Amino acid sequence: MTSVQVDKQHDGSEAEGATSGEGYQRGLGARQIQMIAIGGAIGTGLFLGAGKGISIAGPSLILAYAMAGLVIFFIMRALGELLMYRPVSGSFSEYAREFVGPFAGFVTGWTYWLFWVVTGITEVTAASEYMQYWTKGTDGWTDQPQWVFALIFTVLLFCVNLISVKLFGELEFWFSMIKVTAIVGMILICAGILTLGFSDAGDTASVTMLWDQGGFFPNGIGQTLMTLQLVMFAFLAVELVGVTAGEAKDPQTVLPKAINTVPWRIAVFYVGALIMILSVVPWTHFQPGVSPFVAAFEKMGLGVGAAIVNFVVLTAALSSCNSGMYSTGRMLRDLALNGQGPKFFTKLTKNGLPLVGTSFSAALMLVGVWINYQWPGEAFNYVVSFATISGMWAWIMILVSQIRYRAKSDRGELPKSSFRAPGAPYTSWFALLFIGMVIVMMGVDKDARISLYCAPLWALLLGVSWLVLKKRNSGQAAAEQS
After folding, report:
1. What is the Cα–Cα distance from 245 to 165, expressed in whole angstroms?
2. Whose CA, among 108, 109, 248, 306, lies 20 to 30 Å from 183?
3. CATH assignment at residue 124
4. Structural domain that includes position 241
């Protein structure tokens, strides 16, 4: 549904029925939506990035994940309220367009599209690097440069996304299943060590290590706050379930269930996993760039751990790239339907898939991979770092849109959602303030500050593009009237 169709929905017709004009096929079932929601919250930010967070904040990183997880839940419930009001594939940009303004929808759509293109480039590059674990030093076809695997993965995932949305959902289901199994397996192994005392870590493993190694805040509360930016980055893509709204079977039932699983997903996969790992391995043994899962396996004397984690991180990277292929095509089509992008992006295949938009995005991902290998310097790092701030922009627009929608629905100007966010709009305001604090932390951290440098350049480009677009649309309207 485009913005011009919104008024038609307000005549009393149901939101789901109103979305039929989008042209998509509802091929994503409850099982797939649930795993997409779970997988969106679990990625390389946990499997690799948590090592840096632990080295900075120690056991208090657990509290940082819990705090950020609560904010993520507020964001997802705000999104859920909007989705039940109007479940559409354009999601964030559609709501921004309706409740904030056309320019906000324009910025949100193109920014979220860029977020996934950049993320796809980095993740497929990372996946090809992970392959070197098994292929380095071997003979035959496997002894290939990294760009070969980057090309293979990009083409493979592109083909998957052009066959059917059901196949995309099935692949994402199994990617998520691998990640979930790995984390649950680690939790069970650590629980066994704590209770039965087996493995090399059995003699020293104890929950007291959470506060015996210099305290729960070994480096001070300030350092714990500095990790919030790393923690929030780890949750980027959790909002992907909103993009699936236009292709979910029975979205009025499936989406609320998926969103309501956010608290226990974060409690188990982040808080629970870190509690277990840090009870088996002292936090001082972790360092940036080393997966806490690998470090824990090594402490336990399980040499196979590195291979297992490498495989899991490989699937996490491919899962992220797969999600990027999926979402970019939908975002470009939504922009085109609203006159904010080239019209050829509106075309769908017989299977209801946005062929042109997905192909364009995949081509840029291939160009980006080539650039990364040719000039792996600071210029590319600036682009990559921008993915973080652009991802959080979607969260900001979700919260602002929900606040404005709630005000209108409470006044009776719009129908009330069947899945209202508890505590809103106060919870949404709290989440906005929290995100603002994280952005301030990014400005303080010299490594993360690059993201803030890139944002004004992107904003300038979007501003100029918007003016050109308005002039073009005005000229077309004048020509049609004459």
Report:
1. 12
2. 248
3. 1.20.1740.10
4. 27-414+421-466
d(CA 164, CA 159): 9
User: Distance between CA 40 and CA 28 in Å, rounded?
Assistant: 15
126 contact partners, CB below 8 Å, separation of at least 6 = 44, 313, 317
pLDDT attached to residue 18: 36
pLDDT at 134: 76
- Dist CA 135 CA 149 (whole Å): 11
Phi, psi of 137 (to 5 degrees): 85, 5
Residue 324 forms part of a structural domain: yes
Give a yes or no: residue 10 inside a domain.
no
pLDDT at 457: 87
**C-alpha angle 289-292-297 in degrees, rounded to nearest 5:** 120
d(CA 334, CA 401): 17
Query: What global pTM score does this model have?
Result: 0.88
Cα 26 from chain centroid (whole Å): 22
pLDDT tens-digit profile of 114-152? 888 888 888 888 788 788 777 765 554 556 677 788 888
Residue with tokens 């095509």: 329
Let me know if residue 54 belongs to a domain.
yes
**C-alpha–C-alpha distance, residues 428 and 444, integer Å:** 25
Residues paired with 28 in a beta bridge: 248
- Structurally, the chain folds into a number of domains equal to 1
Encoding tokens for residue 451?
Answer: 């993201």
**Token output for 329:** 């095509």
Considering the domain boundaries, does residue 220 fall inside one?
Answer: yes
Tell me which residues of the chain have a pLDDT lower than 50.
Answer: 1-21, 140
